[in-house]
Task: inverse folding
């Protein structure tokens, strides 16, 4: 959701007696807690996710449906979008405190953004927005995300796990599905050219797509995207 949409939801929750805190357009833990109470009181699945059923109950049947490429309800993906442009700081011992903060918030021992952080980025986006979702053991290891959630088809917001080096090796990369063209998935991820951005990764490198178990009620679609003049990524760092 956009900040404006989140604020509308927060105001609607407050009007019905469920306190999300300040209606500031930021979807945080207090907003999630308020939504969960509303869901419990109205007979909805209590998952803290603002999906289509919650939208209809809270805002009414006339609430507009999101577009196919709108990440409404995919709060982990919205968190990822908000961090686009976050960069490493060059040089040993000179890490970006925002990236180190991803680890601190999850009690992960991580002290230098020279260490690959694509898995850390995905862990932060999910851990900050889906507090009851189990993270994989060793979330810094990209291929460890093959054990996350449940298997799904590639679609908006899904976690995509790719091989690097060799399909049978142990190196990998992990990020979020943003779209696709005929040859590649468009991946929103961290540690892509040392920053959070969107890049194209060949479809034949995909190992699996995974979906959060606590977001099982949410659905999304594939998104066809033009290639533009962006080349394929071959070794995400």
Result:
């Amino acid at each position: 959701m956009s900040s404006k949409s989140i604020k509308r939801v927060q105001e609607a929750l407050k009007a019905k007696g469920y306190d999300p805190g300040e209606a500031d357009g930021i979807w945080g833990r207090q907003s999630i807690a308020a939504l969960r109470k509303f869901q419990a009181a109205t007979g909805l699945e209590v998952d803290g996710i603002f999906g289509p059923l919650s939208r209809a109950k809270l805002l009414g049947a006339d609430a507009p449906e999101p577009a196919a490429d709108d990440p409404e309800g995919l709060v982990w993906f919205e968190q990822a979008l908000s961090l686009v442009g976050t960069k490493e700081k060059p040089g040993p011992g000179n890490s970006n405190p925002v990236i180190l903060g991803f680890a601190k918030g999850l009690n992960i021992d991580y002290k230098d953004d020279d260490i690959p952080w694509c898995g850390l980025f995905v862990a932060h986006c999910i851990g900050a927005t889906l507090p009851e979702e189990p993270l994989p053991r060793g979330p810094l290891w990209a291929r460890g995300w093959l054990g996350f959630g449940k298997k799904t088809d590639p679609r908006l917001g899904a976690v995509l796990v790719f091989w690097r080096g060799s399909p049978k090796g142990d190196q990998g990369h992990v990020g979020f599905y943003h779209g696709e063209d005929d040859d590649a998935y468009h991946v929103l991820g961290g540690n892509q050219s040392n920053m959070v951005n969107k890049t194209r990764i060949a479809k034949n490198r995909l190992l699996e797509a995974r979906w959060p178990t606590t977001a099982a009620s949410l659905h999304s679609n594939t998104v066809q995207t033009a290639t533009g003049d962006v080349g394929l990524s071959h070794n995400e760092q």
Observations:
- The domain at 3-59 is CATH 1.10.101.10 (Muramoyl-pentapeptide Carboxypeptidase; domain 1).
- The chain has a mean pLDDT of 89.
- Residues 3-15 form the longest helix (13 residues).
- The longest strand covers residues 172-180.
